[in-house]
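Fold in tokens:
===
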Amino acid sequence: MTSYNSSMIKRRKTRTVNIGSVKIGSAAPIVVQSMTKVATTDINRCVRQINRLVDAGCRLVRVAVPTAADTTAFAKIVEKVTVPLIADVHFSSARAIEAIEAGAAKIRLNPGNIKNPKDIIRIIYAADAHNVAIRVGVNEASIRDLKKDTPPAKRVMLMLHEMKKYVRLFESRGFTQIVLSAKSSDVRRTIEINRRIAETFDYPIHLGLTHAGLPENAQIPSAVALGTLLAEGIGDTIRVSAAGDPLIETEIAKQILAALGLYKTAAVELVVCPTCARAHIDVTGLARKIRRATAGIDKPLRIAVMGCIVNGPGEAADADLAVCAAKNKGFIYRKGRKIATVPDNKIVETLLKELNDLRCCR
């Protein structure tokens, strides 16, 4: 699987920040990342989850290090994985420095939780000495001055104020290997604060929506918030937050990017009509058969499965292969040209034959 930049979306220009071997910024592809959800001290389970995330398409993985035992384990985990790791630090400057010395490629700091300038400066010096990047992550829920009745516009301004104070301190020490993020559980505030950050700074931006919920509840809010910003050219790395298996987060993130032409997977893409009274075939059932039959194919191909001839030929013109189903038969298209008419029980077989021919020709 590879990321790529769409010529349709003009990304904002940013500095480039190195996270180990991975570059973040407008000159680099947008990076998908996620976070481990098992105890960091359970080294073997943590390593297995990281490896699964890498196989799923993550190029960065974040690991929480709330205790000294966690940073000790973190050092061992770094040695066992191939992906750059981000240490998630809250409250303790000691944990931040331990994580840097343990081999973190980046650490995440929350301005709402580490406020003492002396502590921050010690972290900056340690990060600079070890060539470690820092994500300044402002969470709305961590801002102490917020009250329940604080208006939305003021909430955004308070988050931006926190970010400015922190960034000024980093810049005063000549440290610019920074990635910025500002998150809320509210879609509109997440969009607005990231727009303001993009206007104010030229550092790469990490996009996310906090506490998005169960996977089935997280998909749409995350797609709206992240998709809106990405379509405006804002965002250089993303993480979808959802309860449960982090592989689900990764899949949602890739789907958001793919919908905008910002991520291309080495898998068959199915375009399936929603069906209506014009359909004379079980389009959904046919599409699922085709999905199962093409599951192992590692070429980025587009197949359209259409239930009638109204939109079918148009979709066929934009697909590598297509079927426009009629009563008891299907019209097979290759690169927009009709090449066969087959009985409905031969549609999948014929598509697979044509698919194999296409793969051989590439």
Observations:
- The CA atoms of residues 152 and 189 lie 7 Å apart.
- The chain has two domains: 2-264, 269-361.
- The chain has a mean pLDDT of 88.
- The longest strand covers residues 133-139.
